[in-house]
Every structure is written in C-alpha cells, then in structure tokens.
Amino acid sequence: MDALSTLFSSLLADKSPSSFLVLTSVPSEVCSSNIGLLSFNPVLELSSSHKRDASIKPDGTIQLAEPSYFSAGHAYYNKPVHLWDNITGRLSVTDFSTHFSFIIQHVYKEVSADGIAFFIAPINYEFSDNHNSSGAFLGLFTNEFALDVTQNQIVAVEFDTFKNTEFRDHPSDNHVGIIVNSIVSNTSITWPSSIKNGSTVYAWVSYNSKTQNPSVFLNDANNLVFGENSSVSVIVNLTTILPEWVSVGFSTSRGNFTETNIICSWSFNSTLEGDGNREKKLGLGIGLAVSLGVVSYALGLLWFICWRKKAKGNAEDFDVDDYIDDEFEKGTGPRRFIYHELLHAINNFAEGRKLGEGGFGGVYKGFLSESNTKITVKRVSKESKQGKKECMSEVKIISRLRRRNLVQLIGWCHEQYELLLVYEHMPNGSLDSHLFGKRTTLTWPIRYKIAQGLAFALLYLHKKWEQCVVNRDIKSSNIILDSNFNAKLGDFGLARLVEHELGLQTTVLAGTMGYLAPECVITGKASKESNCYSFGVPNKVSLIEWVWDVYGKGQLLEAVDKGLSMEFDAGQIKRLMEVGLWCCHPDPTIRPSIRQIIQVLKFEAPLPNLPSKLPVPMYFGPPIHQCKFTNTSSSLMCNCSTNPSLSTGPSIPLSHISNANVELASVID
C-alpha cells in the first residue's frame, strides 16, 4: 500500500501537458487501493448496448456493463489525447504511462467470459454495441472485420478470461495480450493466478517512443512485486497505426457466458504538448508619425465611408464565418491546420495537384512531409455563401460520426480568407472514375464489396447513430475507394440530421438531378426511403427502364457490364440488380429499408417479388410555373408554392419529372 500510495501521489503531482487521475472511493474489502476520491463524472464518457448502461456504482467504481448475456459497454476519457505531432517541423511522439486497477468476478463458478480491454483508438472509431461485437470481440471489433487489419485502427491490451481457439488464442483461459488492428494478439502471456476470482488486479501500461515499445506489467493484491512472468511487450510504431489525436479508455462485452467487470482507479500521463501550448498568438502594433496624422485621418474617413456602404452586404458573411469557426471548435475529431502548412502541402494550389472541381470549389491532393501522410484538401470558393453553409453542415455532421465506411475529416483551416477542409486521402479515387473513366475495370468481387460497404454506411447513418442522417446526395462520384477498394461515403454538405421517429421537414429540394427520388422532385422532402433510391447512376438516362425491361423478359444478365467478361457470380449479380430495382420503385412505401437491403445482399432474406414492368404512379403536383428552380454546379433546388399528393388519378407522370437512377446498378454497369 505504501508503494502504491507513493505512486499515486507522484502521478497526482505530475504537471505534464496531458495527464489526468481518476480515483474511486471503494470499500477496502472490494478494492484495496482506497487512496482518494475523485468522481469519474464528468471525466469519463460511458456507453453501452441494449440499454444496459455502463455505470458508476454507489461505491464510486465503474461497472463496464451489466453481467448479462450479449451485452457490451465502454468507458473512455472525454477529451482527445495528443499521441504524436506533425506541426513542429519534426515528428514528435509522446511517451505515456497509465495505471489502473480492476476486478473481474465470475457470476457462475463453472465458466465466465470474456474479460476487459484497455484501448487507444481514433476519436471517430466505431465501437459496435450489438451481437456482432459481443463475447470474444471485447466490444472492439465486429465479427465481420475482427481479423482484417486493413479495416481497423486500434491498439489495445486485453485481459482475457476465455480461450477462443478460432482466433489462435493463448492456450490458457486467463491471459494478457497486446492486440494491434485485429482480435488476434501480437503477443500474450498466461496470468499466473485467476484474474476472475474477485481480487483487485493492478496494471501498468507504458510506451517508449524511442524504442516503440508498449509494455504491460501486472500484479494482484497478494503480489505487489513485479514478477518475471507478469509482463508483456511488443514493438509497435503508433504513428503508422493511429492518428495524432486519439481516445483512451476501457471496453468489455459478453457472449454466451457472463461475469462482472469493475474499474476501481485510473491514471494517465503523456509528455506531448497540446495545441494550446504550441500555438502562440501574435499581437499587431502600428506606430504612426505625427507628421502623417492628417493623411491617416483622411484615409480612415475614406475607409469608413466604403465600409458603411458594404456593411449590410457583408453582415451575413461575417455571421457565416463566425459560425464556421464555432462549429469547427466544437468538433472533437478534426484539428486546426495552419494555412501555410496546407499551402505547402498542396504546392500553392498547383494545377498538377488538382483532382477535380466540386460544386463549391476545387479539390487538391496534398502531402504532409512531417508525418509522411497523403491528404485531400477541399478549397471552398470565396464567393460561395452556399458552399460555406454546406461546409458548416459537413463539419457539424461528419466530425461526430464514427464509421469505417465514411470518409474521415482530418482537419480544417479558416485563415487568409480561405476555408479549407482536410480529408484522409483515398488512393483509388471515386467510384465514377472507375465506372465511367479510363481507370482499371473493377472485378465483380470488388463491385459487390463496394455495394455492401455503401449499404453498411447507410445502415449506420439511418439506424445506428443517435440521430438519423439523411445524406441527400448519394452518387458514384461521392463514393470514394481506399487502397483496398473499401467504399467510403463522402460529401455531407447537403446532409441533414433528423430524429429517428420524425421525417425531414423541408420543402427545399437539394441534390443532384438523376439521383433524386421522384417524390423528392415533387415534395422537396428527403427521407431514408429517398436515400435508398439514390443508389443511382448518371450518363444513362433510361437505365432504370432498360434494366426493368430485361428483368421482365427474364434476361437480367444482359444488363451485366461487358467489361466483366462473364467473370462473375450469377447469383450475386441477379440479387444485386433486383435489389437495385427494388430501391428504385416509384412508390417510396414499397422500397426496402437499408437493413433489408443488407440481408438480401448477404443471402439472409429472399428477393422481392417485383412487377415485370416499371410502375408509373401519378402525382398531383403544382403547375411548373409555380415552382422556382435554382441550379448550382452540384445540385438543383426548388421551392414549390403548394403541397402535392400521391394519387391514382391522372396528373404528372414521374418519368416526365425526374430521370433518377440506382447506384447499385452503377456497380454492375
């Protein structure tokens, strides 16, 4: 106890830039480290699944999840931790150390599972709180990607209480290991005594940036001397695995067996300074000679007159700029870049670095030499007020989302009258460049994986986040492919947040013509159903009619891209095209939910029974002269003076209003 008290006292006195200490006051018979009292709230964020909350117990400890089957819970520090730095002119990596104590108590003596993990992960890392991440996955991975190191960004220390032979686990049930980007341990050791007998376990985790060596030391209440077999370490370069800013915390999950997991105390210390200590504000001072006073007065008066003339027009710009900075500062993920750093990264907006021109500005490829990182920079046009507003929407939404199938917003810069957004670089570009450009033809397995990846992204946006996110501009140019051809949905400038039980209440139409669901053109309202419809393809105006026609004739394989050279799975391709037609049904009430789409694509649900010909419902819409249309380079907007309704009687055929098509079909042809 004296040694432990001395350690905690030294940690509490530590004045390093990134440190915090979380202690709990607990009964001595439960946790012997009763050293002080500092409430976990609001230092920690708690999350859980199935409404079984990770919670702070009356004795001050944290119970990560209820001891019930198929549950998961997480507790993590509620502020980002600076792991490494690429702005100081050289790569600086933090040294850190953390100490925590915990209890694992079996509920049934026969068997219990599955332990806990201490993790370091990106701020936007997606922790799945469902059956797909329960049990052996410790709440850190889904069963789909648990073994795929290209799909995960995480380093963790596992304190495992159940041997999973399918993951080449340690021979002993009770073991401790270090895992990097997959559930398979890079190295592990046997814990010499049972770690699930209810005694307090102490763990020290440290990282030396010079040796790139994370180390774990372990003790229980009966053995306060480090033993030869109670430590484990491995060489890991964190800068190649994790971003600059990360989250740290604890995770657990249960499967067919259960146990109680309690965190008693926790401290964390790192050496790297944050932005606040790194960035210095420059003060401006100008001294004028008395002899120039009259000239200065005249120039000042002239400036004042010009300013008064422009004040009214500029007021909105000032409001927008202030709001942009406020929204950026609220984001926990993206960080502020220095303007000259980005200017150097993209070679002063050189044409050779330009990847394309978006609706509201250019997109450039960049390179951060300090961190050896490729980036993509979106430059918002100075003249585009609409572009600034869309950037506000994008930052507000995408900085809070956590999903591997969404393009990651790394940072931003709002200096020199420029607004720049910085994204992770996707080396394989956009989907449309492969389908309609001169790039290599995508094989069928890659196309099917892209369709499924996009579906998983929409499932997260529609169902799994705290609010429903309606993208409103899903098209092949906004589907970006990483180095492994994993699909990532980007461009959230037109996205909107809605409550799950409510629809999007707007009469302003926004999106790209050719991708809009028919009812959107009439009502101006986007929805989850119209998002499913927007799995669409440009450049072939009559694509839906043509595919539906060959479907009705029983000749669906005639619609397959000839570039595939008949190298495809016929069952998959028929399923994908029929799902595409189902998504494009003119009646939004008949279209599938995104969950149904995934089940069909995974052969877990039957195909729909579609009519042999494309239905043509009729809408009572306002006369065209009552609609005011506004075009931008990326979207069409409409304000209608009346509210149309769906009808079985004759009115305006949808085919005369919108040639909207299906993105799933674009993957095929």
UniProtKB/TrEMBL annotation:
Q: Please provide one cellular component term from the Gene Ontology annotations of this protein.
A: plasma membrane
Protein kinase domain location, by residue?
A: 349-610
Q: Which InterPro entries match?
A: ConA-like_dom_sf, Kinase-like_dom_sf, L-type_Lectin-RKs, Lectin_LegA_CS, Lectin_legB_Mn/Ca_BS, Legume_lectin_dom, Prot_kinase_dom, Ser-Thr/Tyr_kinase_cat_dom
EC number annotated for this UniProt entry: 2.7.11.1
Q: Which GO terms describe its biological process?
A: defense response to oomycetes
SMART domains this protein is in?
S_TKc (SM00220)
Its name, as the record gives it, is non-specific serine/threonine protein kinase
Which species is listed as the source?
Quercus rubra
Species classification: Eukaryota, Viridiplantae, Streptophyta, Embryophyta, Tracheophyta
